[in-house]
Amino acid sequence: MDINCENHFYDKYVTSTFDIAYALSKALDLVNPLINNHHQRVAFIAGSIAREAGYTDKEVENVILASLVHDIGVVVEKEFHELVGEEETYERELSHVLVGSYLLKDLNIFPDISQLVKYHHTPYKIEKNLLSETEAVPELAYIIHLADRIDIMLLRDKPALEQRNHVIKKISTAPKNKFHPMHSEAFLRLAEREHFWFDIEEQDKYPLIKYSFRFSHINMTLNEILETAKLLSRIIDFRCVFTATHSAGVAAVAQHLAELSGMTEIECKAAQIAGYLHDIGKLAIPSEILYKNDKLNDEEIQILRKHPYFTYTILNHFQIFDTIKDWAAFHHEFLNGTGYPFHLSGHKLCKGSRIMTVADIFTAMTEERPYRTCEPKENFINIIRDMVKKDLIDSEIVELLINNYDAVFCTREKAQKIANEEFNLFRKNILSNEACHKNKNFINVLNT
Q1: Is 437 within the bounds of a domain?
Q2: Per the confidence metrics, is the pTM higher than 0.70?
Q3: Domain with 344 in it
Q4: Count of H-run helices and E-run strands, the chain
């Protein structure tokens, strides 16, 4: 069987800003069922308010895109529990909005939404901007703030229309410094229309939002797709200090092995992208399992083993990742069919998938973690050759790795050193804010 499966990689991919943001919002939904569909509902409400208030199509687009990912900084479950209550405490929300804006700031395809995410919990009038003494709060961020509060007010087990009067009263009687009056007035006009409340409850928000508003089309290069993949990897890696650099290591090793195996330049970059994305399915795994220092019990192991399935599910929402989702999601599959969760055997695993499996094993066993040291070279070689004998992993890729062990090790080490510097800078930037430092217990990874 020819393992060099046909892959369709291109220099540019045409997509829309909405498709990227919507797919990311669906990934965020997996973190906690309490906020399922929250991002999409807020996006619809905010977009509707922005349009009703007379903003330009581009401004409405930015409001919707930012709304779709507005809680991207909420990377641990316990903060979601804090956010789903009606009452809002400005200072307490600062950690996650700073984390979110930091994650998004380098995403060139969305140059305007980082600041909107940063200020989406800021009231209309405040005595002091606790996030920055020099920045002006973007007016559009107030729309997301209002839309977020409206959705939080709505109980999921009761028709939205039946709650209309309750929400109208809450918004109408809110302190004058809480919401922008122009936005409140726009909402109150919308609230008179029954279809607005029916649309909020529509489960499939994709066609509702995509075809009700205008969005830009973008030509994404592989380098821009790579940057998007890095963002996604940070979302999962930054949830846990133990694995804060893991995806960067796998990405670097996968790219190196792809080069050694004679893949094209584009395929090597695709392998790097797949490496960044391989564990994105861990967004669906409870934090207490990801953070656990001790050995997992059988039930926890079964839950953790779901993550490649969710990697596949998440990447299925991203058209730009269509050609590499198999590479990323099949990293726990074995040639003899005993891997998980798809139990694919050798003839269904192409070279990209086989490289990912070896790259993940190598990185996991040779990287330093707080609770264990890396596997010595000779031990690793013995273990991985034994896996070849058991028909678990590809012998040719393993021999390439062994013959170039020191070079690949240095590649992993260098990539993870850079990733660790980025992670430490991320923590430093968040904790440098006094209010965030006081409330750092709401972001688990900041407490280490």
Answers
A1: no
A2: yes
A3: 229-430
A4: 23, 2
